[in-house]
Amino acid sequence: MGKYDALAALLLEAIKEGGDLKKNDNSIPVGISNRHIHLSQIDLNTLFGAGYQLTKIKDLSQPMQYACKETLTIGGPKGAIEKVRILGPVRSESQVEILQADCFKLGITAPVRLSGDLQGTPGITLIGPQGSILLSQGLMIAQRHIHMTQEEAKHLGVSDGEQVSIQIDGLRGGNYSNVVIRANNTSALECHIDTEEANAMKLASTSKITIIK
């Protein structure tokens, strides 16, 4: 084998090894969520006017999800929080996801729930430029969870609905438990936690986590 043939063989082997490492990489990117609102079209009409359409300003990591230009004020028995961002697209039912500290300002206790699990949650007042609404339910603190496809779930050895723990590296790192797997074929791989949880362990949008059991 000549000098250049040997170099080519080494390069091919390095590429192969790199590919294997990538295939075996079990790290998961992190998405950090602040308080936000999902609206039904009916409630959107009441708050902004009949036939109103949301204005997309930025795509989010999950397919078809986006941040909107529009914001609302949310109000509770003791106080209000202004400029809470709406996320699109519209849903069948409105939902408001807040932080634990927001409960003290609003004067209301919100349960920890997965998105869409609204039964038994408290309501909240939404105030928009054209009207206001008192939701009968829909206020929650988001439970930490991981989005992934069914194929990724198989690779990571987990299943939809399973609760796992995650490991976070770094000086303020540690473990979070009760992280729910949300596996379907319309998701992008990402662990979702809120800003309070991220700040506690000094996580950033560039951070990655790993699943532990």
Summarize the structure.
By secondary structure, this protein is an alpha/beta fold. The protein has helices spanning 3-23, 41-48, 100-106, 150-156, 195-200; strands at residues 28-33, 36-40, 56-59, 66-75, 80-91, 95-98, 112-113, 125-127, 132-134, 139-142, 145-148, 163-168, 174-183, 190-194, 208-212. It has two domains: 27-31 and 144-212, Barwin-like endoglucanases, CATH 2.40.40; 34-142, no CATH class.
Topology record:
Elements lengths: L2 H21 L4 E6 L2 E5 H8 L7 E4 L6 E10 L4 E12 L3 E4 L1 H7 L5 E2 L11 E3 L4 E3 L4 E4 L2 E4 L1 H7 L6 E6 L5 E10 L6 E5 H6 L7 E5 L1
Task: Describe this protein with a few key phrases.
213 residues; alpha/beta; Barwin-like endoglucanases; 2 domains; 6-stranded mixed β-barrel; 5 helices; globular
Task: Tell me the count of domains.
Answer: 2
Strand content: 35-45%
Q: Name the helix and strand elements from N-terminus to C-terminus, one letter apiece.
A: HEEHEEEEHEEEEEHEEEHE
Mean pLDDT: 90
Major β-sheet annotation = 9 strands, mixed
What gap, in angstroms, lies between the N and C termini?
Answer: 48 Å
Oligomer: single chain
